[in-house]
Structures are given as structure tokens and as C-alpha cells.
Amino acid sequence: MKKNLSVLLVVAMAVTSLTACGSKSKEAASDAAAESSSTEAAATAGSNDIASLQNLDKLEVKTLDDINPLDYITLGEYKGLTVEVAPASVTDEDVDGYINNLIESNPAKTEITDRPIQKGDIANIDYEGKYADTGVAFDGGTAQGFDLDIGSGMFIPGFEDGLVGVKLGDTVDLDLTFPEEYGSKDLAGKKVVFTVKVNKISEKSKEPTDEWAAGLGMEGVTNLEQLKETSKQQLTEEAEATHKADVESAVIEKVIEISEFKDFPQELLNYYLVQENEQLENYAQMYTAYGQPTTASDIVRIMMENTASDQTDADAFLKNMVNEVAQQFITFAAIAKNENIAISDEDVENYLKEAFDAGTTGYSSLDELKGDVDPKTIKEGLMADKVVAFLVDNANVVEPAN
What is the four-CA torsion angle of 209, 215, 216, 218, rounded to 10 degrees? Predict the structure, then answer.
């Protein structure tokens, strides 16, 4: 598990300048943080207390350009490696499961006009939340035309139950109290009143229809048969991408496993530590934006939990993680040197232009993007990509024996 984490970190390090510098990209990644914001470690956020993350601005650093990677590694036979990776596969059961998930998240609905709200219904509502004592509306407590799945537990306790029995077109006041452990300190434990108007009541249909499939908004899908075809194509593309990533991970792990390393210069480890801290700080800010005040140290502890690490010392865990990243880049650089794999300034320029033209960086101009990235980081990432592609091209990928 730890090795897989390190492989992922190679990618994270390689694109640090594009996906984690400044606030532009944090918004794009904030949904992921929202999904994870209930993690126990995030909920108990404290100070940035991991020793390695303190006084980073005083560290001396070296990059791969400052060393000869072959001084720190004895490479094994990295050409012709045999790795076992299961082939990409999508079954009819996979497609059915995917469509069932679509039904759960985007259920077919029949509008109801002859009865009040019941559990399991979807109620389209307007609502406004105010503090009970002052009558002042609080931030984030107002919306119009919101579809609420009654019984989903999406809102605070009492909100959904309070709508059961309410009729179409009616307006009700719900006297509620935010949980004491609620993420926002301005709302935790506070008594509030939600004024809610019911605009529409819908019942979930048990069977999907062609009309429902067309309403999903998927390109080229106007009926259930087309939905199945499109779903299978999408799942196949995802399976192939996963297979490609699994092959790359297996090859990287194998090369490192058969290589021998000497101790790296502390300055090089400092360089990767500083980069990793930038990632940690960005993740911490995403958690904090969703009401869970979090530090880089907290993110390290969350990573320890999510990787089921045997390590209990967060500082040691972080140092080990940084050392593994350094191992990978030393390995890539050594192979690049042996195989005359080079990245030019033009390669970096083209990469940045393609990234900007794709419209995913959040920058208003190419010059702004260039001014906010570290070319050395991009160069290392592109070098790693080329080396990994070389290793995969020269590998023998077989199915697992079992």
C-alpha cells in the first residue's frame, strides 16, 4: 500500500506547479476535500507540529541537476522485466452495476400532486435559515429549487423529518439545532429556524425508462440501450486507464526492488520535502474551506490512516514517504542518463502550452502560468513520464497465475 502511495506521489510531485500552486487549482479540487472532510484526523486538527515541516524556508536544497544520480544507485536489469498485472476487463455485471448507481444518484421520478411528502420522496424546496435568537440569515443557509432526497440524511437532524407530511405549495418553519460537532464554529450548537417552501414532490420510480436515460444528459444517449452501450464504453476506457496505471506502478516497484541505493544527500531530501509540504498545505486548505480547520501535519496523519501504515510516528512516516519519492526520481534520472533520455526547454514550453490550451489550469494567460511554475519540477515530471514509458515498452506484462 505504501509503495502505491509513493507511485502516486511521483505524479503529484511532477505536476505540483500546475495543480497545487496558488489558489486557482484549489477550487477545482475542493470537491474531493468535501468528500473526506469528516475524517477523524481532520476533525481533530491541531497545530502544524511535525518537526520536519517546521522552518522549511531555512533548509538548503539540491535538485537532480546538482548531482550525478548514478552515484546513489546501482541499477538492476531494468529492461525486459516481467510483471504480473490483470488485464482490463468489463463484464455485463459491471455495466448493470454502473447503471444501478446512476439510478440511485439520479432516480427516475414521477411527480406527485395528491398527497404530502413521505420518506423516500424527492422534494424540490426553497429554504432560508436564520439564527433563532436574532432572526439574521446565516451564510450557506439559503437556496431555491433544491432537490432534497427525504431520508438521505443530507441535512442536519430534524430537517428532513420536519418535511414529512407537508403538502405541495405549503411553507413551514423548522425549529432546529445544529450539532455541537458541526464543522462551522459559527453554527455549531446554534438554534436556528429554517423557513421551507415545497415547490414539487416527486416519487422515485423503480424502473428506468428511455425518457429517464435521455434526461441524464449523456452525449448520444436517448434511450436505455444507448445508455448501456455508452456505459460499457466509458467503463472500458476507465479499465484500460487503470490497467495502464497498474502496469506502470508494477514496473516502477520492480525496478526499485532490484536496485541498490546509497544514502541520498540531505539537501536532495529537503528539496522533495519542500515540494511535499506544498501539496500538504494545499490539501489542508481544502479541508479548512469545508469547515474542518486542518494543517499539513493533520494531512500526514490522515495519510497514515488511509494507507493502514504500521508507522505510528508522523514525522518518521513523512520522512519515509519523502525518501521513497527521492528513490523513484533518482531511479528515473539514472535510467534517463543511461538511455540518453532528455527533456529540453522546448519540451517544457510545449507541455505548459498544452496544459494552458486545455483550459484546466485556471490561469488567464500562458505568461501568468509560466510565471507561477517551477520549470525544474515540470522537467523532472516529464523525464519521469518518458522513463516510465521506456520501462513499460521494454517490459513483459503477463496475467497473474491465479
Answer: 110
What dotted CATH number matches 109-204? 3.10.50.40
Boundaries of every domain in the chain? 2-78+258-398, 109-204
Helix, strand, or coil (residue 30): helix
| pLDDT cut 90: percent of the chain above it | 72
State pTM to two decimals. 0.71
DSSP state of 10: H
The pLDDT value given to residue 47: 62
Q: pLDDT band for 245, please (50, 70, 90 cuts).
A: very high
Helix H segments across 358-395? 366-371, 375-393
The percent helix, strand, coil of the chain (3-state, each to 5) is 50, 15, 35
What does the pLDDT average to over 16-43? 37
Rounded CA gap, 329 and 377, in Å? 11
Instruction: Name the CA dihedral angle for 208, 211, 213, 218, rounded to a multiple of 10 degrees.
Output: -170
Burial of 163 (0-12, 13-18, 19+ CB in 10 A): buried
> Do 128 and 194 form a contact (C-beta atoms < 8 A)?
yes
